């Protein structure tokens, strides 16, 4: 067993456990887009970043791929982490503004504007479809092509794959292919209509290293009357 500290709480996990798995074991919510149980961790979306180590030498790592290490100090909701997640969500909104999953995450993180040039429903390169096809469907009909800004998902040379069974697994897991929002104008790219009101306990955060991570929030449940 490995002992580490997460948000000031000592926790023991089995060797080989990732920081994301350790956080979920504690009930700490960490957002993900490219992660799915049963598929190999990929660390593409970077939404699951956490802060490890002590300042000023701390660093951000993707919790879905980073292994738990003996004595490691982890913060899942520090100011630095929250700022990084909001920036990533703005970039994802610019790439795929009609994805309801991304819209809901943006609303949850109180993003009210998108500052980057908006594409129109581009692939966010999360790799879920590629891993689903290879690891669950055992087909490997699609894969990544190109590098940098020319990177894309598809079949080699855009030739229809002979091993594709048209199972639809790639579309089932794709964040861009699932439920859609209708707001897609650059000046009004963030809808937020589906989001709940902000929790009262987060209006004036008292802690720099940890915001509210309870789901559902105990305080919000109490105030429902």
Keyword list:
Ubiquitin-like (UB roll), five-stranded mixed β-sheet, two-stranded antiparallel ribbon, 225 residues, alpha+beta, 2 domains, 7 strands, single chain, Alpha-Beta Plaits, 12% strand
Short description:
The protein has helices at 19-26, 79-95, 100-108, 128-136, 169-173, 218-222; strands at residues 2-6, 9-13, 49-52, 59-62, 73-75, 143-145, 152-154.
DSSP, total strands: 7
Which structural class do you get from the secondary structure elements?
alpha+beta
Q: How many separate helices?
A: 6
Unreliable spans are 196-200, 202-207, 221-225
Proportion in helices:
10-25%
The number of domains is 2
Give your account of this protein's structure.
This protein is an alpha+beta fold. It folds into 2 domains: 2-117 and 183-211, Ubiquitin-like (UB roll); 128-173, Alpha-Beta Plaits (2-Layer Sandwich). It contains 6 helices and 7 strands. It has helices at residues 19-26, 79-95, 100-108, 128-136, 169-173, 218-222; strands at 2-6, 9-13, 49-52, 59-62, 73-75, 143-145, 152-154. The strands form 2 sheets. A 5-stranded mixed β-sheet has the order 2-1-5-3-4, sandwiched between helices. It has a two-stranded antiparallel sheet with strand order 6-7. The longest helix has 17 residues, at 79-95. The protein is globular.
SSE order and pairing:
Blueprint: E1 2-6, E2 9-13, H1 19-26, E3 49-52, E4 59-62, E5 73-75, H2 79-95, H3 100-108, H4 128-136, E6 143-145, E7 152-154, H5 169-173, H6 218-222
Parallel strand pairs: 1-5
Antiparallel strand pairs: 1-2, 3-4, 3-5, 6-7
């Amino acid at each position: 067993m490995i002992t580490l500290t997460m948000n000031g709480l000592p926790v023991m996990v089995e060797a080989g456990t990732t920081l994301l798995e350790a956080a979920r074991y504690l009930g700490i919510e960490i957002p993900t887009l490219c992660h799915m149980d049963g598929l190999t961790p990929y660390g593409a979306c970077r939404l699951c970043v956490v802060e490890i180590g002590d300042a000023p030498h701390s660093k951000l790592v993707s919790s879905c791929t980073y292994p738990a290490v003996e004595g490691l100090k982890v913060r899942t909701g520090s100011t630095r982490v929250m700022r990084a997640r909001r920036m990533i969500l703005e970039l994802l909104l610019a790439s795929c503004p009609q994805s309801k999953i991304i819209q809901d995450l943006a609303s949850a993180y109180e993003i009210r504007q998108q500052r980057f040039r908006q594409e129109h429903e581009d692939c966010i390169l999360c790799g879920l479809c590629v891993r689903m096809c290879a690891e669950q469907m055992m087909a490997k009909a699609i894969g990544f092509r190109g590098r940098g800004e020319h990177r894309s998902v598809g079949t080699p040379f855009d030739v229809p794959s002979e091993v594709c069974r048209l199972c639809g697994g790639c579309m089932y897991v794709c964040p861009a292919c699932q439920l859609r929002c209708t707001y897609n104008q650059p000046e009004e790219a963030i809808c937020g209509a589906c989001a709940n009101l902000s929790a009262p306990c987060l209006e004036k955060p008292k802690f720099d290293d940890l915001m509210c991570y309870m789901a559902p929030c105990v305080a919000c449940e109490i105030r429902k009357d």
